[in-house]
């Protein structure tokens, strides 16, 4: 799913090598020009992997951070359900599913702790993920390619000739 | 219980790659730039994406290998880092030597500094321009050997007073925003006070309050003022009030402050280290000198603020601000007059019999509107002196309107009379019909600002005394008691929609309605 820089002839290794030699203002420019479109791609892809309401909430929390070395796709860092529950609370259950009889520790209204069953809230377990990871697998090549092109064009514009 | 978000970096081992290149394990591509051009330009986005997918697949297949490589690079990087550290320690002998050298120079510097200090103070006149010279005198050629100009500035600041340095920066550069804001505030206070009067006591009080609550960096607070006053053994109260805009006795304070600063400087100059019986320590004197200097700087700032505010007020007046304000008020009255016209028109258009004549009403409004518009345009044409404007303003509405009309369009002779009537006795009456503002207004050459707060204080005390008042009210209610409401006859036409009723009756027409009546005996015999 992800791309190694150490495999032979990795395009990201080429980019990383070039980035090392660029002045920091050019690197910053590349980052800021990549972030917006990459975030759009990421959210778009996430939305295509949404099947339930909870997965929709996870998809809405999608974000992208860009540094000079790497791009990180994120989900579940922010946002909340309409009940006020942070998306982070339901993130892993939603992404990987949960057995219906999995116990969830709960505290009753009167303060007595008990365990309730997860039920059908998250659907069955799937180790490969349901929303975030499949979306990442589908979009990483596209974002990486976009990154390389942005870097090339920005450098060409900024320093005229590479 | 929120767990950490899912984060997926698209490059697996970007950090290790970076380390590998830095430590020389990975040979960076020789022609990386050409390779990038190949990728981005020659192959095009579709092919590039495919290539990325290939790399993804390869990464998946070589998962273990890439991970092992990355780990090796990380380990190697650490060991080479250790090596680097070791070689750095090897060279530590040389480093130690150079450190000794620095401390030698510092000792030398401090010795020379002590010697130079006395001489410098004797030549220091307290002027800001002397600062660079002081630095030069004190450090001589040492500044270079100690290393850079920074310590020189630090020592110069200690010697000549932080307050002075700050002041120097202020004067060298633009005035700070804070200063500008203060001057503007004070100018407003002067304008509100009107003319030559000094800012009202409330304004000073408000300014002190603001000083007390100033917390931001770079903003002068009462605490700063207190520090300066206490350090220099001067009066804190006077300084705070002066800084807040009280100009009473400010000049005397400035003179006294300068005098004291000079004394302290003399004392510092006369200081003799070898014979210091009965004398204060040099440190104490210089501390006090510092404080005195910042105290003086604050006073200077206060003086400058007051001057700027007075100048702003003068400018405001000379630019005709007062006239404009009055004019604006007059024009504002015009708008209100329109409302009055409509009301008046209703009265005028109602005949004695109480019949409202629409045509008459419209005509009246139309006519009066023309008058008002005329008045408005007359106002804008009129040129009067401030004093005349004020007098005009004090007249009743109706009179004002006709005066303005005759001033603009009346006969010349009448104009002269009106103008002189508007002019206060004693001042040079403008006999010409139109006295322009430029001629009529004579600004005072100098604005002296005095605050005599005793009167206002007395007034405030008088006002705030508790009072009690009994009001007796006598009502004559006889007339009210006699009054009876007149009897009225009101014809009432009652319209009742009876159609549903008649429909209901129609429905029941011809039917036999059986009504069951049940009798019950309750308590008494059935009747």
Describe, in plain words, how this protein is organized in 3D.
The complex is a heterodimer of chains A (162) and B (527). With 162 residues, chain A is mainly alpha-helical. Chain A is 49% helix and 12% strand. Chain A has helices at residues 11-20, 24-47, 53-60, 87-96, 132-159; strands at residues 63-66, 71-75, 103-107, 113-117. In chain A, the strands form 2 sheets. Chain A has a two-stranded antiparallel sheet. Chain A has a two-stranded antiparallel sheet with strand order 3-4. The model of chain A has no long low-confidence stretch (mean pLDDT 89). The longest helix of chain B is centred in the middle third of the chain and has 37 residues, at 282-318. In chain B, helix 9 runs parallel beside helix 15. Chain B has helices at 14-23, 32-42, 44-61, 63-90, 92-123, 131-139, 142-147, 150-160, 162-172, 177-193, 201-212, 222-231, 236-243, 250-270, 282-318, 321-349, 358-381, 386-393, 397-409, 412-422, 437-440, 453-464, 478-482, 499-508, and one strand at 6-9. Chain B is mainly alpha-helical and 527 residues long. At the A-B interface, helix 1, strand 2, helix 4 and helix 5 of A face strand 1, helix 1, helix 2, helix 3 and helix 4 of B.
Give me a quick take on this structure:
The complex is a heterodimer of chains A (162) and B (527). With 162 residues, chain A is mainly alpha-helical.
Break the fold down into its secondary structure elements and pairings.
The complex is a heterodimer of chains A (162) and B (527).
Chain A: H1 11-20, H2 24-47, H3 53-60, E1 63-66, E2 71-75, H4 87-96, E3 103-107, E4 113-117, H5 132-159
Antiparallel strand pairs in A: 1-2, 3-4
Chain B: E1 6-9, H1 14-23, H2 32-42, H3 44-61, H4 63-90, H5 92-123, H6 131-139, H7 142-147, H8 150-160, H9 162-172, H10 177-193, H11 201-212, H12 222-231, H13 236-243, H14 250-270, H15 282-318, H16 321-349, H17 358-381, H18 386-393, H19 397-409, H20 412-422, H21 437-440, H22 453-464, H23 478-482, H24 499-508
Helix pairs in contact in B: 1-4, 5-6, 5-14, 6-8, 9-15, 10-15, 12-15, 14-15, 16-17, 16-18, 17-19, 19-20
């Amino acid at each position: 799913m992800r791309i190694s820089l150490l495999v032979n002839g990795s395009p990201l290794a080429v980019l990383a090598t070039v980035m090392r030699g660029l002045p920091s203002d050019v690197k910053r420019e590349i980052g800021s020009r990549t972030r917006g479109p990459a975030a759009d791609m990421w959210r778009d892809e996430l939305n295509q992997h949404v099947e339930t309401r909870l997965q929709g909430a996870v998809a809405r929390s999608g974000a992208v951070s860009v540094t000079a070395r790497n791009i990180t796709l994120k989900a579940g860092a922010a946002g909340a359900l309409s009940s006020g529950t942070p998306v982070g609370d339901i993130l892993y259950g939603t992404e990987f599913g949960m057995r219906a009889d999995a116990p969830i520790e709960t505290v009753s209204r009167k303060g007595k702790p008990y365990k309730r069953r997860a039920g059908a809230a998250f659907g069955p377990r799937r180790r490969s993920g349901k929303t975030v990871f499949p979306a990442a697998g589908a979009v990483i090549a596209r974002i990486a390619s976009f990154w390389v092109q942005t870097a090339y064009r920005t450098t060409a514009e900024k320093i005229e000739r590479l | 219980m929120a767990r950490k978000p899912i984060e997926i970096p698209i490059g697996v081992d970007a950090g290790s790659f970076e380390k590998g290149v830095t430590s020389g394990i990975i040979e960076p591509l020789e022609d990386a730039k050409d390779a990038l051009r190949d990728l981005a330009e020659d192959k095009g986005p579709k092919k590039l994406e495919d290539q990325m997918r290939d790399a993804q697949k390869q990464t998946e297949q070589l998962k273990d290998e890439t991970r092992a490589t990355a780990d090796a690079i990380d380990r190697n990087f650490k060991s080479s880092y250790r090596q680097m550290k070791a070689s750095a320690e090897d060279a530590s002998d040389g480093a130690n030597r150079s450190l000794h050298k620095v401390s030698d120079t510092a000792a030398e510097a401090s010795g020379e500094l002590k010697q130079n200090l006395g001489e410098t103070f004797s030549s220091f006149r307290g002027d800001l321009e002397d600062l660079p010279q002081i630095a030069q005198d004190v450090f001589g050629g040492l500044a270079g050997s100690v290393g850079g100009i920074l310590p020189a500035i630090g020592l110069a600041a200690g010697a000549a007073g932080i307050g002075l340095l700050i002041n120097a920066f202020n004067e060298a550069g633009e005035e700070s925003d804070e200063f500008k804001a203060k001057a503007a505030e004070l100018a407003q206070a002067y304008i509100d006070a009107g003319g030559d009067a000094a800012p009202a006591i409330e304004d000073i009080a408000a300014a002190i309050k603001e000083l007390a609550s100033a917390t931001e960096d770079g903003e002068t607070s009462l605490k700063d003022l207190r520090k300066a006053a206490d350090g220099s053994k001067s009066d804190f109260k006077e300084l705070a009030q002066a800084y807040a805009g009280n100009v009473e006795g400010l000049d005397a304070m400035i003179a006294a402050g300068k005098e004291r600063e000079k004394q302290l400087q003399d004392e510092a100059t006369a200081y003799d280290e070898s014979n210091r019986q009965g004398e204060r320590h040099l440190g104490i004197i210089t501390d006090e000198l510092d404080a005195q200097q910042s105290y003086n700087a604050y006073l200077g700032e206060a003086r400058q603020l007051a001057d700027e505010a007075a100048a702003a007020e003068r400018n405001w007046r000379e630019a005709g601000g007062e006239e404009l304000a009055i004019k604006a008020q007059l024009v504002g009255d015009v708008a209100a007059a329109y409302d009055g016209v409509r009301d008046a028109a209703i009265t005028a258009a109602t005949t004695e019999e109480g019949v409202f004549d629409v045509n008459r009403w419209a005509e009246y409004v139309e006519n009066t509107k023309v008058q008002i518009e005329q008045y408005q345009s007359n106002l804008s044409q009129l040129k009067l002196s401030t004093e005349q404007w004020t007098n005009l303003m004090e007249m009743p509405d109706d009179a004002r309107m006709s005066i303005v009309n005759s001033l603009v369009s009346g006969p010349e002779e009448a104009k002269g009379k009106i103008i002189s009537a508007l002019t206060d006795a004693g001042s040079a009456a403008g006999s010409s019909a139109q006295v322009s503002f430029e001629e009529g207004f004579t600004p005072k050459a100098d604005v002296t600002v005095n605050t005599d707060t005793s009167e206002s204080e007395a007034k405030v005390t008088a006002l705030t005394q508790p009072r009690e008042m009994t009001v007796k009210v006598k009502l004559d209610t006889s007339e009210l008691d006699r009054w009876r409401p007149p009897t009225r006859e009101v014809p009432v036409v009652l319209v009742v929609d009876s159609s549903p009723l008649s429909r209901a009756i129609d429905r029941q027409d011809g039917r036999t309605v059986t009504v069951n009546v049940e009798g019950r005996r309750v308590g008494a015999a059935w009747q």
